[in-house]
Automatic annotation (TrEMBL):
It holds the Pfam family PurS. Belongs to the PurS family. It comes from Rarobacter faecitabidus. It comes from the Bacteria. This is Phosphoribosylformylglycinamidine synthase subunit PurS. One of its GO terms (cellular component) is cytoplasm. Part of the phosphoribosylformylglycinamidine synthase complex involved in the purines biosynthetic pathway. Catalyzes the ATP-dependent conversion of formylglycinamide ribonucleotide (FGAR) and glutamine to yield formylglycinamidine ribonucleotide (FGAM) and glutamate. The FGAM synthase complex is composed of three subunits. PurQ produces an ammonia molecule by converting glutamine to glutamate. PurL transfers the ammonia molecule to FGAR to form FGAM in an ATP-dependent manner.
């Protein structure tokens, strides 16, 4: 089985309280390299057969219509899983 990865992130103008909480915790744990954090979602879609351009287009369409809330989120990537390339 092949896998397509869909990454969804909050739009830049949307507040991200989970990202803020993580950003606040990182320096307390010694991770001072990071200026900010945004938390998103990752979906792994398994398909039978080969990942084609049509499959990627269908995954993007599904991501825009079902997997994300287009009012507050952007679909930032639709890719083939690394082990499938």
């Amino acid at each position: 089985m092949a896998r397509v990865i869909v990454d969804v992130m909050p739009k830049p103008e949307i507040l991200d309280p989970q990202g803020k909480a993580v950003a606040g915790a990182l320096p307390r744990l010694g991770f001072t390299q990071f200026a900010s954090v945004r938390q998103g979602k990752r979906f792994e879609l398994e398909i039978e057969g080969e990942v084609t351009e049509d499959v990627l287009a269908a995954a993007r369409s599904a991501a825009e219509q079902v997997l994300s809330n287009p009012i507050i989120e952007d679909v930032v990537a639709v890719t083939v899983a690394e082990d499938e390339k």
